[in-house]
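May I ask for a sample protein chain and its fold as tokens?
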Amino acid sequence: MMCFTTPLLECEKKLLDVIRSKTSKYNVDNIARTNSYRKFFNLHKNIKWSFLASMVSRNAGWNMCDLEGSIYREIIQPEMRRRLFLTYERANWLIFQDAFPQLLLYHYSTKLNRPMFHLLRYFHVSQFMENEWNQFWLFKDENRLLTSLIINEQNVIQEAVLEHPVYKKRVFRSLPFLVQDALHFSVVLFPTCRGELYGASVNKFNNVTRRIDLGKRLASILFDFDLFHLFYEFSERTVHTGSRYDYERFFLKKVERVTPFLRMTYPIINHDIKKRQDWKAKKNKSGKWFNMPIEHIYPIKLTSWYEKKQKQLAAYTAVKQLFN
């Protein structure tokens, strides 16, 4: 349990209000969250996680819009599509609700030239991250902080989403999710303006260690010396709409847009803000997660893989329509 024994200074109270206001303002939908992460990275290039978060959040938006695209509308029932959307949205919202106050506190710490991370507890951020931010302030280990944030955010959504009884029963044990999971359809893609796709996938998505491993592998791809500038160029040149046409328009072989724009498809979802328990109080595996080696078992260039998967989905849709 977090202890609030020291009275806050007036300036600290004002800072908390500013951060709460900004977090609420930008945590409205996937588009706003993605753009906020990207803009923060442009202010603080040493906080690598913010760029990773922006690119992964793009993928969340693409996954949301897939559900109302021409393929998934044919193969997944409306109620299941709604549940999947709400699951993506809840996880996307929760991560931002936890992470953005951390980013803003770092930003204002740099302005004040002193660490303000003791205020993280007022946003119910894990003590684990308060310790990590203080370490970062002293030692400037960018990769350590990147890994810390990957570990933290995956634990934030573990109990609230992955282990939540409703999501667990109605989503993560559903046939559409299990098929996607088994066939590695759930992949995180990093596009380039050359029409190339890089990325990685994971199965057993409900396993927190698997997702942390995925996050570390994705970070190693995103910040690869030879590739980073390509992903950054895409991020800066491409407005995030939620449609996969954001990157498909760069393909050498021209394709039509088959997925919609997010803000023309989904309403703003109002989320319940529930007090979060500190995940670190229940788990003590952070050492293991830090030390896991980064291994790419499969190729990271996924352009051909993506084309093949799209053809498989189209074929499956055509067969399903024959029997309807």
Notes: The beta strands are 187-191, 197-201. The longest helix spans residues 78-112.
